[in-house]
Batch of 3 targets.
Target 1
Amino acid sequence: MAHRLEPTFDPGGLELRGVRRIFAALLGRPSPGAYALARRWLPIAILPAYPRWWQLWVLVTRRDDVQEILSNDRVFEVPWTSLMRELTHGNTHEAGFILGLDRSSQASAREYGHSLRDVMVLFRLDDVRETVAPRAARLAAELVAQAAAQAPPCRLEVIHHLLAPIFIDTCQSYYGLPAPKDSRALLQWTIALSGMLFGPPFDWERVKSNTMAAGELLRGWLDDAIADRIQQAAAGKPLGDTVLDRMAIMHRAGQASMPPDAMRAILTGMVVGSVPTNLTAAGHILEVLLDRPEAMRAARAAAASGDDALLSRCLFEAMRFEALNPGPWRRCNSDYLLARGTARQRRIRKNTLVLASTASAMLDPEGVGEPLRFNPARDAADAQHFGHGLHWCAGRFIADAQITQSFKALLLQGGLRRAPGKPGQTRLLGLFPWELTVEFERGTP
C-alpha cells in the first residue's frame, strides 16, 4: 500500500476559549428558564451571529413552529449538503448520504430516495436485536466489572472507559471497520466533523481547515477498510455479515449504487452521525441522572427489573432536561411566513439560517404536558431527540440499544455518584463530553 502523508490535525483546535467559550455555553446549553423566556417573549427571534455580527439568523423555540420547519424540507433545507460532499469526497449522485440530503429539488429528492434505500438494505432493524444490543451488553458488563474489581469505592471514568469503547466497538463488530490505531484520535476526528456539520454555520470558516484535516484522516481509515473488503470480495473469499461486507457484496454484484465513493459516504455519515452524537447523548443523560434523584431512582429500578424498554424511556426522558444540542440548523431557500395566522408570525427571508430548537420544543408547555416533571411514561411524541420529519435519525435504534445497554450495566451497581472534586465534573472538548468519573459500590443498588 502506498505511503500516505498524514494531514496536520490539531486536537487543541477543538477547544473553545475566551468569548467563544462563553457564547457557545449560552447558545449550546441554555437553561430551561432561558428557553421559557424565549418562548414567551421572542419565540421567533432574529439575532446577530458571533463573531460576524452583521450576519443575522433566526432562533425558533415554540414546539409548533419547530415542527413546521422540520416538516417542510422543501423550503428549510440542510445547510451542510455541499460541505458533506467535500468531507466525504463524493463527486457523484450515488455518493450522497441522507444526512446531507433533502428534497428541495427533484434531483435532490431522487438522490435522497436512493440513499435511504441503500441505508435500509444495509442497516437492518433485526441487526439491533441480534447483534448491536447483545454485543453492547456484554462489553458494558465487562468494562463495569473491571472497575468493580477495585477496592471500594470503585471509580470509573465513563467517557473513555465505558461509553466510547462501546460505540467504537459497534463500528468494528457491526459496521465492519478495523480497530483504530488510536481510539482517542478517532473520537477527536469525529468530534471535529460533528461540531462543524451540526454547529453554527457562520463559524465554519474558523474551523474548516482543521476539520478538513480530521476528515482526511477519517477517510484514510475508511478507504483502507473499503479497499481491503472489495479485494476480498473480488478474490471470492468468504465474507461475514457486517455492513461493510454487505457493501462489498453489492459492489461485487455490480450494483450501480455501491461504488467506493458511496461506500465511503455512507460509512462516514454513520460513524460521524453516531460516535460523537451518542457520546454526547449518554454524557448528558448521565449528568441528569447524577443531579436528579427521581431520575436516578427510576432508571435504577428499570435496570434492576430487566425491562430494557422501560430503561430506555427513563434514559431518554432524562435527556429532555439536557438535550443533545439546541436543535438542527436549516437554511430557508425562499421567503416564508412562519406561524402564519398567529400573533407571532414572522417572515423568514431567503437564505436566512434558522435554528429550530428541538431542545426548547421538548419543554414547551403548549405542546408537552407537565414538561418540567420527569415522567418515563409520557408520550414518545413529546421527545424530539432523534429529529422530526425527513431527517429523523437513521441510527435511532442503534443509538438506543448502545446507550441503554451501557447504562444498564452501570446502574446495576450500588451508590452511583460523582467522584469528588474535578474528576466528578464533566470536562468538555468544545461542547462534547470528554472526561467524567463516577464512583459506586459493587453489587445491586
Note: The longest strand covers residues 44-48.
Target 2
Amino acid sequence: MREGEIIVMDPIGLHARPAAQLVALANEAASAVRIRNVTTSSQWVDAKSILNILTLGAEQGHAVALEVDGLDADAVFESLVSSIEGAESDG
C-alpha cells in the first residue's frame, strides 16, 4: 500500500478536466484508489468515480490524501501524484 498527502496545484482545483484526468488514471489501475480532502476533513472516497472527486471540493492549495492498495500501487501512486501536483488548467 502507498499513501501520502499532495497539495492541489491547479488554479481550478480538482474540478472538470483535472478530476477527469485523475479518474482516468485511477481507472487504469488494478489497485484500489481512495482520496480525501485533508484541508476540509472529508471522508475517504473511491477515486475511480468523477462524482466522488467533485464532492471533495478540493481547491488550489488544499491538501489531499491518496491511498493506493494493490499490486501496481507504487506506479499508480506516482502517476496520480504527478497528475495532482502538475495539473494546470488551460483556463
Note: Helices lie at 16-28, 50-55, 73-86.
Target 3
Amino acid sequence: MLFDKHKLPINKNFTLDTEYINDVIDGSVYQDFIKAENPGHKNDCYTFTLNTDGISLCEKSNLSIWPIYLNINEFEIEDRYFVDNTLIAGKI
C-alpha cells in the first residue's frame, strides 16, 4: 500500500553531522550500509526498524499474540510512526 500511495521518500539527505546524530540516517553505520549495498542508487534502498510487543489474549489463557511491525527509517521522524506508514510483518 505504501508503494501504491507513492508516499515513500525518494530524496534522502546523506550528510553526516559529526557533532550530532538526530536520526538513524545521520549515523555513519547507516550511511556506510547504504553506500555499500546500493552504490549510485541510494534512493532505491530502504531500511526498517523492527518492533514487537506481546499481549495475553486474556488473564486465564496461555495464549498471547506478538505482532511484528516495521517502520521505514527514511520517513521523517514526525511521519515514521503513523499507522498508515507502519508495515505489519507478522504475528506469533
Note: The mean pLDDT is 76.
